[in-house]
């Protein structure tokens, strides 16, 4: 089911099949899309892994059996065929300029080298790499947007440098090792969408030892938040509707508003205390297996008296050498998890390891907004907390059995002797 589009040879022809030997785009999929990077419409039906007739060309290789392309993947790639999602991403200047800056900051590692762009979309990152002097860029995308990417490459006279492969990175063939992988794979709450697994696959298939991955590190954070206005506009609103008492609606309003995680912008003022690092990803060593289920224990000390409405999540990615985030740089008493799972107080002052070399794309509430915004898991009812009150518990993020691109969020938290559980699914 994959196809290749002429590219490197200056063609425009479409090949059927997933093997690439220079000069084309290989294609597969379809997908669902998020009106903003959400998989809400991704249909897909039952999980067909391993048994579906749509399984993408499971090539028999000695030591590599690519994951089959399921109906969910097909829907996922189809959603990325819609130009609107690419327009939204490209117009996110914080995101796109961070990638462009990172590519040019690493020009010495890219010039004259071979690059793979995992999930090239419109081809924008591949073109940045070509502008930075890459000798060859393999621009891989399973969505039909790859056809457009190939047209963009041709229109910019870059067919000698950029080869568009229209297919999954799990299936296409590249007959050489690569020096650099670039990819914009981050979903809401970092891991939603499960695209990092495909970057790992590309790394393990083609990256030379010591090769560069952009971004190189990713960090997912969480923090308790207070957001009285948001609660009021969704719930208290029903108390008086044009003078009519509709407060009987309030239980349903809570369920409708807060059952699922909410992607929205909050500000630093909503955050009750320092964030907790949920997951630290080193893209050069992370495994697909460790992303299937991420668990952490947290312990927060509220810095103010406020109604506590839920937990906010956001992420940073770092291009190049690891950096300490601003949170790490500040003397704080945030909780840290030890290797044996215990939660301890940390009051170390850490320094940015090499501030000149590390470029950070942050989606934190206090930073410039991005299209990822922040993700909030709201409670059905707020918890009143006092200054210095402890909030502790655990979080488990796991791929949904319903659709591995969805994410299950299991939260257990306790404060002032009361214990709560909140389950939600990010679809
Ligand atoms: C978030 S978009 C990024 C697009 C582009 N790189 C940019 O920065 O504007 C991710 C792209 O990766 C593609 N993609 C996701 N998983 C893939 C896989 N396993 N193989 C090939 N393409 C994939 C999607 O179809 C989508 O176009």
TrEMBL record:
Region (Disordered): 1-66, 338-365
Protein arginine N-methyltransferase domain span: 218-320, 356-416
UniProt keyword annotations, A-Z: Methyltransferase, S-adenosyl-L-methionine, Transferase
UniProt cross-references to PROSITE patterns, sorted A to Z: SAM_MT_PRMT
GO biological process: methylation
Molecular functions per Gene Ontology: histone methyltransferase activity; protein-arginine N-methyltransferase activity
SUPFAM superfamilies: S-adenosyl-L-methionine-dependent methyltransferases
Gene3D superfamilies hit by this protein: Hnrnp arginine n-methyltransferase1, Vaccinia Virus protein VP39
Biased composition annotated in UniProt, kind: Basic residues: 28-37
Biased composition (Gly residues): 1-13
CDD domains listed in its UniProt record: AdoMet_MTases (cd02440)
Function recorded in the entry: Arginine methyltransferase that can both catalyze the formation of omega-N monomethylarginine (MMA) and asymmetrical dimethylarginine (aDMA).
Protein name: Protein arginine N-methyltransferase domain-containing protein
Taxonomic classification: Eukaryota, Viridiplantae, Streptophyta, Embryophyta, Tracheophyta
């Amino acid at each position: 089911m994959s196809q290749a589009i002429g590219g490197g040879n200056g063609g425009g022809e479409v090949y059927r099949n997933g093997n690439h030997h220079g000069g084309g785009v290989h294609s597969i999929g379809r997908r669902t899309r998020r009106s903003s990077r959400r998989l809400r419409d991704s249909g897909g039906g039952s999980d067909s892994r391993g048994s579906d007739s749509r399984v993408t060309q499971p090539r028999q290789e000695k030591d590599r059996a690519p994951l089959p392309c399921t109906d969910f993947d097909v829907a996922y790639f189809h959603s990325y065929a819609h130009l609107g999602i690419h327009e939204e991403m490209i117009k996110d200047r914080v995101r796109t300029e961070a990638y462009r800056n990172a590519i040019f900051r690493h020009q010495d590692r890219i010039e004259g080298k071979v690059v793979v762009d995992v999930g090239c979309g419109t081809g924008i990152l591949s073109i940045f790499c070509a502008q930075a002097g890459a000798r060859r860029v393999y621009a891989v995308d399973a969505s039909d947007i790859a056809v457009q990417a190939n047209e963009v490459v041709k229109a910019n006279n870059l067919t000698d440098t950029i080869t568009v492969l229209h297919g999954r990175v799990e299936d296409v063939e590249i007959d050489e090792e690569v020096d650099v992988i670039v990819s914009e794979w981050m979903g809401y709450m970092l891991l939603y969408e499960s695209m990092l697994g495909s970057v790992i696959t590309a790394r393990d298939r083609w990256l030379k030892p010591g090769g560069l991955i952009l971004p190189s590190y990713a960090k997912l954070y969480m923090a308790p938040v207070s957001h009285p206005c948001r609660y009021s506009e969704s719930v208290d609103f029903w108390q008086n509707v044009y003078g009519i008492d509709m407060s009987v609606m309030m239980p349903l309003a809570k369920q409708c508003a807060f059952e699922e995680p909410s992607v929205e912008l909050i500000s630093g003022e909503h955050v009750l205390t320092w964030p907790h690092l949920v997951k630290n990803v080193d893209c050069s060593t992370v495994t697909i297996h460790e992303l299937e289920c991420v668990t952490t224990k947290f312990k927060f000390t509220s810095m103010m008296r406020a109604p506590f409405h839920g937990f906010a999540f956001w992420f940073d990615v770092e291009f190049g050498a690891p950096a300490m985030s601003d949170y790490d740089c500040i003397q704080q008493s945030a909780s840290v998890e030890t290797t044996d799972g215990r939660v301890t107080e940390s009051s170390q002052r850490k320094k940015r390891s090499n501030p000149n070399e590390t470029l950070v794309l942050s989606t934190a509430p206090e930073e410039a907004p991005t299209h990822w915004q922040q993700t909030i898991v709201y409670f059905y009812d707020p918890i009143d907390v006092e200054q210095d009150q402890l909030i502790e518990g655990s979080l488990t993020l796991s791929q949904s059995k319903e659709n591995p691109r969805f994410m299950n969020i299991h939260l257990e938290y306790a404060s002032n002797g009361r214990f709560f559980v909140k389950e939600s699914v990010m679809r």
